[in-house]
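Form 7-S
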Amino acid sequence: MHFLSFLVCLSQVDNRDSSEPKITPEQAAKLCDRNFGIGADGVIFALPGINGTDYTMRIFNSDGSEPEMCGNGVRCFARFIAEIENLHGKKLSFSVHTGAGLIVPEIQEDGKVKVDMGEPVLKAADVPTKLAANKNDAVVKSELVVDGVTWNVTCVSMGNPHCVTFGVKGGQVYTFG
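Output:
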C-alpha cells in the first residue's frame, strides 16, 4: 500500500484501482495511532470517480468514523493526486466526489491548492449543534461557557460541524499549551 503523510496529519492512500478503501475503519484507527502507528488524524483514500467525477475521496478519522469531507483534507488530496499523476508546474482542476457533494480543487502553478468549499451551513439543526439558535435559526456570535469562561462562538458546517470561536466575552486573552 502506497501512502504519503501531509503536514495536516492526514495520510493519503492511492486506492484508484478499487471502489472501496483497502483498509477497514478499524485498521485505519490502528494505523493512525500516535504510539503504535504512523500517527495521523485520519486516512484519506483516492478512489475512482463516480457519477462523472474524476476521483472519489473517502476519509476514515483516527477513531474509525467516516466524515463527509475535510477542507484541509481535500487540499491534501489534490496535492496527492498532483504528485501521483506527475502534474507539477501546471494549473489544473479536477472533480472530486465526496460525502458532502462535488468539490473541484484547483492546483495553482506554484503548487498551492484553491478549493471552493461552497456555501456554509449555518442553520443550527443542519450543522448540527445542540446550542440554541439565536439568529435566523443559526448559532451566530453566541455565548458558550466552558470551565467558567464565556466564549463567543458561531456554529457552521462545511461538510462537517465546526464551532468557531471569536474570543472570549470581555476580550480576555487565553494561552494554551
